[in-house]
């Protein structure tokens, strides 16, 4: 056995080994003697590969030689290491030099070897027994020590604790990375130096351990960074020797070439000096203690006597504050960087007091730090004129400047800053209140429209408390930027006050339309809209969530069909808007799907057939309708459809459809290899129902079972075809060759060929089996056999990429399909034991699709992917191959129902199936339901019968675990779970859990339970969308009408818009006798469809078709319209008959495919807009196709004047949004149009519907023990204060508690404001680091929002260092020019990829569409504010899906407020700007429940 030791010398790792076999003591009398136990360098190099490929690679790069070590021992022999097991007695032991054989590894190879030592030198605990080769070599203590050093270096690099340097070396100048060792890292360095085995520093001479360690860490750090950053930091051409040195140095920081030859000393010093200063400053700013600043406001003024009822006197408050020691004070202190609780104010320091961890001269540390801080905030110089500076007094202007400007600079520079709790949080806003008015004598059918008058009041507000005009005037007179108002300090300026004074002048009466305009405007930048309070129907309308508030309208009795739940909600919304007399946009498409490309494979009559071939072969009795064609199938066509119970059933095609289009299609690819190209109007079945909102990451249902009953096929022919297609080669002359290594297989096929010839009367011409190279070959030449197959649809002579399974095999009975699959997989498939799967490859995409469908006959999921592989025909040409994989539960189904005919493969499959299956392969998406169940019940996760991994989406529910969760919910519903819980031993959580059971919302839980059952029992697999690609297309698209189920596997046929619009008319006529006629205008191609759908679904409606040369005119038309319920016409006819149609007072005008009126100047758009109607409805899937003027035209039809004139719209919205990406204009436009647009299902599509969708998700984080301790301390402290206070003081304490607890959830340093280290102390921060690394690895960009500027100032340098990437930071202290430069840099350049933004500062016109990820680190509990921030990325100009993540600490107030808002989201979003003030109204008991810390909060 070899014991391998290590040392570090001259920038290299030195490896040498002792041979435990021992050797005779040395008889040499030389001063430096050979080590008697040292193994030869060759033996060491030969042993290293036993530690794996990395060690083998390192051994290959090593240089062999000799080295002299100072080792303990006697004159005749060194002492062997204890690991060898050898014993040598040394009489006069001492340190003597010994020569050993060694291997020398440079830093890069050393880093790779040391990084893999744990995996190599210590067998995995999961291994049943150690590998044999590991017993021959053993890592000695010195090598294990250097491995620990390498691990520490990797951690430094991961956390960004490195800096680039320009250094002088023996060979010249070089670019190097060096570690930054401060704080705990410096302590770790000292620990490592103390623990260093002496042999590590015993090369040639004994050196101090710290010197050797820093040399090793420097070299290993440089190697680790280069391995982590293999790419160049600068793009373009590689700079040459004449290029600027800075460019050469930057390029030399990556890759293997660090040397920079040919550098002059003066230019080297010019570059090295600022880098050394940077390195030195990094160590100075993060020492064991740091200077901290605390801003203290003037002392509190006594509040007015509550018994007198006097209102606060603002001038009196201000004067008292100024007179009563009213100066602001900036206090100085020293604070420990390790323990934030150690805080020493300057007066105590000068008085001689101390605290643990202070350096020898703390006074010098304070003075030095103050001197550096004075460069950023010169006012500190006033204090430095004193011998013992302790504070500096500030007037109100200087205090305001410190808050807005100096504090962020000091924090970002590494100083501690403590600000008052109100800083940055309190400012004036605008509150709008509207109340309905009762008008005597109003007509009953007047309707609540845009002209209805309401009482309106605008008033400035501080939080939710209004401020009077007199108070505003007094504030304006004082002209101070900081003032105490209602007991709170408020930051304000002259512009805010002017805006507030103007706002109060506008109270009085307004129309609904004018109120909407006020809400749309959103206030000014100086006085933003913070609250809206409206009652009645106006309140419902302004909420933008009217469809969610309304009670769904049941399917009318006269409607021949059943509306789905979301359609019933749509019907309720349409009825609501109609009653208000307001126009609406149903942002969904009209007509049939028109979905599939010509080559889309459709399952019909048991086989896959291209959509165009179905039309070509079966279309008859064709009816053309203005670009579209309907046809009746020539013969019966059957597909598979999913029924209402989620079961796959056979269903017939009743009609075929095709249409010529010129538009953009979507190519949707799933992670199981499925692919389909469809129109934007086509729906696929998602987890929550049929949807056209298909985005990457979504789950789409693919059938678990395909049902077909076919005829049997001759078994011999079936087996021969399986081998012929898989291993055969056919030429055009009816020659067939099948190759195989196993001759027995070919002999059996030979016999089958003879039987086929006899059975079917074919001349097969004596087939032969002969050897060919390393294989055997079955050769058959039979024109009869080729003709026999061709007559049955087989394509003879196709190459491998074009091969297909013949339809008569694919559509055969189950036994035939099973036999074919068994032989085909025996020929082409292989069992990959390490991956626990079966793998099969084919160059033919179509053939792989056929195999997938055939396997679904037995419920087996074949997942495919594409890889480049070398052809197997000997040419070596690389081409794309389809790789099919069967894993998870499908593996056992394959074994039980299909299997291999090869006993070797079958035995291997049996062995794999004996191991546990991967449930994630065929999982049931249920994490969202489990989280919903937990939120609605308040019960701990463990009560739901499954592990916590199922709540976090890290593990998919299997059908078995889904059943366990359902059983657990059943026990909750029955009360059994509660009874069992009460029998358990009592603990601190027993009472809370028991209370949750008593308050159990059984209806909500039952709904979740039923949804989970439906998902688990639905006969589908849930595949994930991997890409949605837009492609331009001109040509035919196809669709197929399926009776009863209205769907086939590719999408839905039932036109949801048609059903809802028709059901609206039916519902109105059931409620009222005199309704009036509805005029529906549509493209001519849809006219017949509307007529047929009305006859089918609403036969009770009187429908008149006003079209063609025979249409009615004058009195006849008037008479017919007078009795009609629905009048159908086209856009062209509406233009021609404009005057005739304008004579009628229509109850409603509906524009289907309303994009037809998107051009406001077009004559048909003008004609339709000119027709009078009580209400208007636009049906369109694309209200914005090219530019926003199209939106104005459609909205002008629905609600004339809502968005102003076309010119005003262009100035207010179109130009700011399209040219400048103005965020304020975008938000105002969404506010104006949102209430008038139906939001479908869970997607909440806004009016800008052509934006790619955003995917919102919640990221659950846990607290560290330190966070949990601080959280509990804050709760106890603040609840005592809250319980002992009332009124405004209580409200202030509640909001202060909210703030402090949210800061704890962010990071302990955020609450303490002590500048302490960030790493390893926050669950949120750890998750943010992981997420940022994932985003960067994908090459994406991200916006990271925080509502706290102070926290952002902490995050920016930390993330930049950890990620080793630039991180931008935008906050309110930056001037506009700087902000614009940051935005331009982020939008235009590849780096930086992470943009950190203050939630408040980011709300002024930013366009950040370069990002496709948005992260809300801390929550602002008004969804509108968060969405406004999210819309920096999710806005016009965005071409990719936007992923939005909201961090929430589980088991804390963050989770409970999130639950409350989710339960009442419509109410929470109806009032813009309410923020968190509503929480202040909760009782003390409710607050204690809100703030409490649950056990699952702590990691």
UniProtKB/TrEMBL annotation:
Family matches, as Pfam families: DUF3670, Helicase_C, LAGLIDADG_3, SNF2-rel_dom
Domain DOD-type homing endonuclease: 720-860
Protein name: Helicase
Keywords attached to this entry: ATP-binding, Autocatalytic cleavage, Helicase, Hydrolase, Nucleotide-binding, Protein splicing
Domain Helicase C-terminal as annotated: residue spans: 1327-1479
Keyword Transferase belongs to the record: no
Xref: SMART domains: DEXDc, HELICc, HintC
InterPro entries recorded: DUF3670, Helicase_ATP-bd, Helicase_C-like, Hint_dom_C, Hint_dom_sf, Homing_endonucl, INTEIN, Intein_C
Domain Helicase ATP-binding: from-to ranges: 1038-1201
Originating organism: Microbispora bryophytorum subsp. camponoti
Transmembrane stretches, start-end: none
Record bears the keyword ATP-binding: yes
Highest taxon in the source lineage: Bacteria
GO molecular function list: helicase activity
């Amino acid at each position: 056995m070899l014991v391998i030791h290590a040392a570090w010398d001259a920038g290299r790792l030195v490896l040498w080994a002792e041979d435990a076999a021992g050797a005779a003591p040395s008889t040499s009398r030389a001063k430096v003697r050979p080590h008697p136990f040292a193994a030869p360098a060759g033996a060491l190099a030969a042993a290293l590969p036993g530690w794996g490929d990395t060690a083998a690679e390192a051994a290959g790069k090593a240089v062999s030689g000799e080295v002299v070590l100072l080792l303990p021992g006697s004159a005749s022999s060194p002492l062997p290491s204890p690991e060898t097991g050898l014993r040598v007695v040394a009489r006069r032991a001492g340190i003597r030099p010994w020569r050993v054989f060694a291997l020398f590894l440079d830093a890069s190879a050393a880093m790779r070897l040391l990084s893999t030592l744990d995996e190599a030198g210590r067998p995995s605990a999961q291994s049943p027994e150690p590998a044999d080769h590991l017993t021959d070599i053993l890592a000695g203590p010195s090598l294990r020590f250097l491995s620990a050093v390498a691990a520490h270096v990797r951690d430094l690099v991961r956390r960004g604790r490195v800096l680039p340097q320009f250094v002088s070396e023996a060979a010249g100048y070089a670019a190097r990375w060096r570690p930054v060792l401060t704080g705990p890292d410096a302590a770790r360095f000292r620990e490592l130096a103390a623990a260093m085995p002496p042999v590590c520093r015993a090369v040639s001479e004994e050196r101090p351990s710290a010197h050797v360690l820093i040399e090793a860490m420097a070299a290993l750090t440089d190697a680790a960074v280069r391995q982590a950053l293999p790419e160049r930091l600068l793009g373009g051409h590689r700079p040459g020797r004449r290029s600027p040195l800075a460019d050469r140095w930057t390029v030399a920081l990556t890759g293997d070439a660090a040397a920079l030859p040919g550098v002059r000393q003066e230019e080297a010093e010019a570059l090295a000096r600022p880098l050394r200063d940077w390195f030195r400053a990094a160590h100075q700013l993060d020492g064991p203690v740091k200077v901290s600043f605390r801003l203290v406001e003037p002392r509190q003024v006594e509040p007015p006597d509550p018994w007198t009822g006097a209102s606060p006197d603002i001038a009196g408050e201000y004067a008292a504050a100024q007179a009563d020691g009213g100066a602001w004070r900036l206090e100085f202190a020293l604070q420990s960087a390790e323990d934030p609780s150690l805080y020493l104010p300057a007066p105590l320091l000068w008085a001689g007091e101390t605290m643990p961890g202070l350096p020898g001269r703390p006074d010098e540390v304070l003075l030095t730090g103050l001197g550096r801080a004075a460069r950023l905030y010169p006012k500190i110089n006033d204090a430095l004129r004193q011998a013992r500076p302790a504070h500096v007094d500030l007037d109100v202007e200087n205090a305001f400047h410190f808050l807005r400007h100096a504090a962020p600079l000091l924090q970002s520079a590494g100083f501690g800053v403590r600000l008052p709790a109100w800083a940055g949080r309190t400012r004036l806003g605008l509150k709008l209140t509207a109340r309905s008015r009762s008008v005597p004598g109003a007509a009953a059918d007047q309707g609540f429209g845009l002209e209805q008058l309401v009482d309106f009041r605008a008033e400035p507000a501080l939080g939710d408390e209004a401020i009077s005009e007199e108070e505003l005037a007094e504030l304006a007179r004082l002209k101070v930027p900081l003032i105490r108002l209602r007991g709170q300090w408020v930051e304000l300026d002259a512009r805010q006050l002017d805006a507030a004074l103007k706002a109060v002048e506008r109270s009085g009466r307004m129309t609904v339309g004018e109120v909407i305009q006020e809400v749309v405007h959103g206030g000014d930048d100086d006085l933003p809209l913070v609250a809206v309070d409206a009652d009645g129907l106006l309140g419902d309308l302004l909420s933008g969530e009217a469809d969610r508030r309304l009670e769904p309208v049941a399917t009318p009795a006269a409607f021949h069909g059943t509306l789905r739940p979301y359609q019933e909600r749509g019907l309720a919304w349409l009825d609501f808007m109609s009653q208000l007399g307001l126009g609406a946009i149903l942002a969904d498409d009209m007509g049939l799907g028109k979905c599939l490309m010509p080559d889309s494979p459709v399952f019909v009559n048991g086989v896959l057939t291209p959509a165009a071939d179905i039309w070509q072969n079966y279309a008859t009795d064709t009816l053309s309708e203005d670009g579209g064609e309907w046809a009746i199938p020539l013969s019966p066509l059957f597909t598979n459809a999913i029924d209402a119970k989620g079961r796959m059933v056979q269903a017939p095609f009743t009609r075929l459809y095709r249409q010529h289009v010129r538009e953009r299609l979507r190519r949707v690819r799933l992670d199981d290899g499925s692919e389909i190209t469809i129109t934007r109007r086509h729906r696929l079945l998602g987890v929550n129902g049929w949807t056209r909102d298909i985005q990457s990451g979504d789950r789409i249902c693919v059938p678990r079972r395909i049902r077909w009953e076919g005829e049997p096929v001759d078994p011999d022919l079936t087996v021969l075809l399986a081998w012929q297609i898989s291993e055969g080669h056919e030429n055009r002359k009816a020659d067939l060759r099948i190759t195989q290594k196993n001759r027995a297989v070919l002999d059996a096929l030979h016999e089958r060929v003879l039987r086929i010839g006899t059975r079917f009367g074919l001349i097969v011409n004596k087939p032969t089996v002969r050897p060919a190279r390393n294989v055997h070959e079955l050769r058959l030449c039979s024109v009869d056999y080729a003709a026999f197959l061709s007559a049955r649809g087989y394509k003879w002579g196709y190459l491998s990429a074009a091969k297909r399974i013949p339809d008569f095999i694919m559509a055969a009975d189950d036994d035939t399909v099973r036999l074919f699959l068994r032989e085909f997989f025996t020929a082409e498939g292989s069992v990959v034991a390490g991956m626990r799967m079966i793998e099969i490859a084919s160059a033919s995409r179509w053939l792989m699709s056929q195999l997938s469908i055939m396997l679904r006959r037995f419920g087996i999921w074949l997942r495919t992917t594409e890889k480049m592989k070398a052809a197997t025909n000997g040419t070596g040409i690389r081409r794309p191959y389809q790789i099919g994989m069967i894993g998870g539960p499908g593996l056992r189904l394959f074994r039980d129902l299909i299997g291999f005919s090869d006993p070797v493969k079958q035995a291997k499959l049996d062995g794999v199936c004996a191991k546990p299956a991967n449930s994630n392969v065929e999982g049931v998406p249920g994490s969202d339901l489990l989280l919903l169940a937990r939120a609605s019940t308040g019960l701990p996760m463990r009560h739901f019968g499954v592990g916590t991994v199922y709540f976090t989406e890290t593990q998919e529910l299997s059908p078995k675990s889904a059943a366990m969760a359902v059983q657990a919910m059943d026990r909750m519903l029955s009360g059994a779970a509660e009874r069992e819980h009460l029998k358990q031993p009592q603990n601190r959580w027993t009472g809370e859990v028991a209370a949750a059971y008593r308050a159990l919302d059984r209806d909500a839980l039952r709904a979740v339970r039923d949804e989970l059952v439906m998902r688990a029992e639905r006969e589908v697999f849930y595949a994930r969308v991997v890409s949605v690609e837009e492609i331009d297309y001109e040509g035919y698209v196809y669709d197929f009408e399926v009776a009863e189920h209205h769907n086939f596997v590719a999408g839905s046929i039932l036109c949801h818009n048609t059903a809802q619009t028709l059901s609206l008319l039916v519902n109105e006529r059931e409620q009222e006798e005199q309704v009036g006629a509805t005029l529906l205008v549509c493209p001519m191609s849809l006219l017949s469809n509307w007529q047929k759908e009305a006859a089918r679904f609403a036969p009770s409606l009187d429908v008149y078709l006003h079209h063609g040369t025979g249409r009615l005119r004058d009195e006849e038309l008037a008479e017919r319209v007078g009795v009609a319920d629905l009048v159908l016409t086209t856009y062209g006819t509406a233009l021609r008959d404009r005057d005739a149609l304008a004579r009628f007072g229509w109850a409603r005008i509906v524009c289907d495919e309303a994009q037809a009126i998107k051009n406001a100047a077009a004559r048909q758009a003008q004609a339709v807009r000119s027709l009078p109607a009580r209400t208007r409805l636009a049906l369109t899937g694309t209200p914005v196709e090219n530019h926003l003027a199209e939106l104005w035209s459609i909205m002008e039809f629905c609600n004339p004047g809502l968005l102003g004139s076309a010119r005003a719209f262009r100035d207010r919205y179109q130009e700011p949004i399209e040219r400048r990406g103005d965020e304020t204009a975008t938000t105002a436009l969404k506010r104006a149009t949102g209430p008038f647009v139906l939001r479908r299902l869970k997607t909440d599509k806004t009016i800008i519907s052509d934006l790619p969708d955003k995917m919102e998700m919640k990221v659950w984080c846990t607290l560290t023990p330190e966070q949990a301790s601080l959280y509990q301390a804050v709760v106890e402290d603040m609840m005592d204060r809250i319980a002992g206070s009332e009124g405004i003081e209580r409200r202030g304490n509640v909001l202060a508690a909210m703030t402090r607890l949210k800061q704890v959830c962010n990071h302990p340093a955020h609450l303490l404001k002590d500048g302490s280290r960030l790493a390893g102390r926050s669950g949120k921060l750890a998750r943010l680091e992981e997420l940022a690394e994932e985003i960067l690895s994908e090459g994406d960009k991200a916006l990271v929002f925080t509502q706290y500027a102070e926290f952002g100032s902490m995050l920016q340098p930390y993330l930049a260092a950890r990620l080793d990437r630039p991180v931008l930071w935008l906050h309110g202290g930056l001037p506009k020019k700087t902000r614009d430069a940051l935005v331009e840099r982020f939008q235009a350049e590849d780096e930086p990829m992470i943009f950190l933004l203050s939630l408040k500062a980011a709300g002024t016109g930013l366009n950040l569409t370069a990002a496709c990820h948005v992260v809300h680190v801390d929550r602002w509990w008004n969804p509108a504010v968060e969405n406004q921030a999210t819309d920096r990325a999710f806005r016009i100009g965005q071409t990719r899906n936007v992923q939005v993540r909201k961090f929430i600490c589980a088991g804390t107030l963050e989770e409970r407020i999130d639950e409350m808002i989710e339960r009442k989201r419509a109410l929470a979003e109806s009032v813009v700007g309410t923020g968190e003030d509503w929480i202040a109204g909760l009782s003390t008991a409710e607050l204690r429940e809100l703030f409490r810390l649950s056990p699952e909060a702590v990691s």
